[in-house]
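In response to reviewer comment 3 from the previous cycle, which asked for concrete evidence that the modeling workflow produces usable outputs, we include below a single protein chain processed end to end. The sequence was submitted unchanged, and the resulting structure tokens are shown without manual editing.
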Amino acid sequence: MEENLERYILSANFKDAEAKYHKMDFQQFDDEIIISAYNNKNMIYYTFLHYLLMKEESAKLHNLAFSLFVNALTPIEGAYHCANYHAQRAVELTNEQDTFSLEHLLFLNIVPDKLVSDQKAIEICHKILALDPSNNTAKSSLKELLPKTK
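The workflow returned the following structure tokens.
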């Protein structure tokens, strides 16, 4: 019987988990990590992502780490702060040219810790709209933010 990714990670068998990761479609990997982390509420999933990031840093992995912290691991103290780091790295690695990564930073304007100021959120909205003029997230955020800053 073939071991699954979750068992490899939970047993800290990162070498075999990494081999499995390289054989998987990234979306499938993303889904499995998020679902397993929701089910287990265990920081080991982040530890494994960190292990991968140390070997091959990518915006995709940073975006997954962001998602892990703002979804499955949100109850952990400092989760949004960790998510902020990963959102910033993804934006840096994509040279501010990926709307998905920019939207992650924008999201941090509305979390309880409000890690992105209204002014910075407006700047992010403009960057997103420059890349995708029809982006509804940026449009609606801008509509809410502009009256607050006047």
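The chain has a mean pLDDT of 95. We consider this sufficient to address the reviewer's concern, and the full set will be provided in the supplementary archive.
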